[in-house]
Amino acid sequence: MTVLTPTPTAVASAPAASLTAGKLPRWTPWALLGGSLAVSAAVFGVAAIGTSLADFNIAGTVIIGLLLYMVLITVISSIVESRRKAVDRLMTALVATAFLIALLPLISLLWTVVSNGIERFDAEFFSYSMRNVIGDGGGIVHAIWGTLLITLTATVIAVPIGLMTSIYLVEYGRGKIAKAITFFVDVMTGIPSIVAGLFIYAVFALIFKPGISMGIMGALALAVLMTPVVVRGSEELLKIVPNELREASYALGVPKWLTILKVVLPTSIAGITTSVMLAISRVIGETAPLLLTAGFTQSLNTNIFNGQMMTLPVFAYNQYMNQGTNPDASLARAWAAALTLILIVMVLNLLARLVAKLFAPKTSGR
């Protein structure tokens, strides 16, 4: 008896993407982009013959190359694929180009600050002040202490006020009073920083004497700028807390104030922390209000209620505007102060993310 063995059936393999398959290969956009940039570079290179390498127009090369790429990808995609797919690829190219355009100034800024500020990143710079320093040397320990103390004091003042205001607007506020508060918060969001400094200076000049400068005045000026940012950010985050959570708490007999404290705030703590960090980042680099209120000094002062205090933005401004006997040393200190300020903001943002992750409500994953 003969046994019939089944013959193996041929497994149909997916056709490889090609110019005749109705779909462009994955490498095609990258190849077109590289070719467009190469053609653009060749054109600008020919135009720059006889000049130095520094005269080569890099920005023009990139712009013309991207425009050429958009034209090529749209035409080729409409021929091989479809008109709808061609429009999709064109929109993708436009969005990616807009992203790169928005990213280039940030990269250029970071590169400029790091390349110019790394020169003075040494132990002396972070352990000495500018007291009795005229030329080389000196440091920013007094400016770092001033920035941290003034910003911390402003945060302690602004965050409770802003957070309680947002809780009132979301949980209790109704009618004309809530609308008036919202209107004035929106107005305060757009006031220039110099106005906040002038306001605090005028108040203290009336109470004490004209010409007074203290660290607490700078903290109050920054608090005026921080408060509306905290209010608007926290308000939007409290609004997105589901009402079902509040109703479930009320059904268990929990009073409203305890529901806000134990349910609403823990649910939105991650977003509230982010809004607070945005407010801190908004004010930590302010210079104009601190020039009017906190003043500047070359010595270390950790008492915000007595005497002038130096901050990093004011230090950078002062070093650039008053270069003294050694302009190169002053400019190096100014760039290093700017780099230090960026690093402080980065560390604060990382800490805020860590706090938000630790205190965010835990969800049971399956």
Keywords for this structure?
flat; 366 residues; single chain; mainly alpha
Written account of the structure:
With 366 residues, the chain is mainly alpha-helical. The protein folds into two domains: 27-119, no CATH class; 141-359, MetI-like fold, CATH 1.10.3720. 69% of the residues lie in helices and 0% in strands. The protein has 13 helices and no strands. The protein is flat and about 70 Å long.
**CATH superfamily heading of the largest domain:** MetI-like
What is the total domain count? Answer: 2
Cα end-to-end separation: 56 Å
What is the CATH domain class of the largest domain?
Mainly Alpha
Q: What overall geometry do the principal axes of the alpha carbons give? A: flat
Unreliable stretches (pLDDT < 50, length at least 5) are 9-15
- Structural category is mainly alpha
Rounded mean pLDDT is 86
Rg on CA atoms, Å: 30 Å
H/E topology pattern: HHHHHHHHHHHHH
Q: What is the makeup of the main sheet?
A: none
| CATH fold label of the largest domain | MetI-like fold
Kindly estimate the percentage of residues that lie in beta strands according to DSSP: under 5%
Please state the oligomeric state of the protein chains shown: single chain
Write down how many β-strands occur, each being a DSSP E stretch of 2 or more residues. 0
What's the helical proportion of residues? Answer: 55-70%
Total number of helices = 13
Looking at the overall shape, the CATH architecture of the largest domain is Orthogonal Bundle
